[in-house]
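Example 5.3 — DUF538 family protein
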Amino acid sequence: MGMSFTQRSICLPTILSLFLIVSPSLSSPTTSSDDRPSAYEVLQDYNFPVGILPKGVVNYDLEASSGKFAAYFNGSCSFSLEGSYQLKYKPTIKGNISKGKLSSLQGVSVKLFLWWVDIVEVRRSGGDLEFSVGIASAGFPLDNFFECPQCGCGLNCNGEIAAIV
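Solution (predicted structure tokens):
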């Protein structure tokens, strides 16, 4: 009997461990959040390139009827592009999305000279994206946004570890 009890005490933790490892995959419904498109795929559905969002979006919300959205990062994200533009993303960015237009943006800013200013709107215009900071706007070719930048190093990471600031 003692031998049988010892075998059960060894097997029970093993079985429980196996159950805990396997159960999340068994208990997840077939319509899990993994089945919905990524934030980057949603951007493409609205005619935007994926590179207007840096890598690292951990979740998003989208009200398809109104276009109201929010995208979430694990922390703030900042990086430089082409050595001239410094961009900063807050942990949550919000706004409204429609075909070719992001409006009422909150949580994305660019450094112009010495000041940080909010990017409030992005419009797709032919082969360009126009970024508005309210009083001024600038256009850039779409092909600048086919690749997602990384927090900390932008597009020039060269093996550097990406940092969330």
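Remark. The beta strands are 59-63, 68-72, 77-81, 85-98, 101-112, 115-118, 121-125, 128-132, 137-141.
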